[in-house]
Amino acid sequence: MRVLVTGASGGIGQAAVRHLVGQGDTVRTLDRAGSVAVDATDEAAVGAAVQDCDAVVHLAALPHPTLGTPRRVFSNNVVSTFTVLAQAAEHGVSRVVLASSINAPGIALNPHGPLPAYFPLDEDLPTYIGDAYSLSKQVDELSAEMAARTWGLDVVALRFPLVKPRTELINIAKSVARHPAQMMRTGWAYLTADDAARAIAAALVAQIKGAYVIGLSAQDTLLDMPTQQLVDTYAPRVPCRWPFTGTEPLVYTLRARELLGFQPRESIHTGRRD
């Protein structure tokens, strides 16, 4: 495939480019530091970059509400996503994979501290948005629906949790273990960068039509503790839809398995899980 990757210099972007090139795809990159060094909100530049591509992986974004004013974070993320979707449709691209976030429902970053409506978190979790970044990701998912409905694009919005290289996640887990409640509202979810790249690759070729939001997680949680014990200790007021056994994740990943055929291979606790 000929794939345009926006935000290619970011953590997920680097892993995605490496994986796609490794499996034989031709990759063109677009970001402020890429082979096409432009902003993803630039309509003409995105249109030029996407020409002759079969698919687009859109990862460019300001990935946290503290990385700019609320207006800048929201407008950058929403305009870049809409621009990429529109230009992909105009130039005959059939598939776009874009980075949404576990924060799209607005729970984790909300300054008012709401609890999740339930565990495990899924794609239908009720929203309660209180920050510009989470709002931008929610709008990105709606933009994907519009692009599928209006332009016939197939769009997969992947709700990434905390994504870092495995060694970095191990260090983060040690820090979180000292203050476990700080990641409770994301269910202590994580995914290694290499598994994130595999999810993107699976989304590019999945036999699905239309727009889909798909949650992702490793097969366990960031903390090396039985999942039910973790919930009982640090989230006793969050309802559980079923009892948890072992160290299963608190993100429900059925869509990823059924629609993409994707299961993560790596755990920060046990190494690779095939």
From TrEMBL:
Residues 3-215 form the NAD-dependent epimerase/dehydratase domain. Belongs to the NAD(P)-dependent epimerase/dehydratase family. Dihydroflavonol-4-reductase subfamily. It comes from the Bacteria. InterPro entries: Epimerase_deHydtase, NAD(P)-bd_dom_sf, NAD(P)_dehydrat-like. The lineage of its organism: Bacteria, Bacillati, Actinomycetota, Actinomycetes, Mycobacteriales. Keywords: Oxidoreductase. This is NAD(P)-dependent oxidoreductase. Coiled coil: none annotated. Pfam families: Epimerase (PF01370). The keyword Cell membrane does not apply.
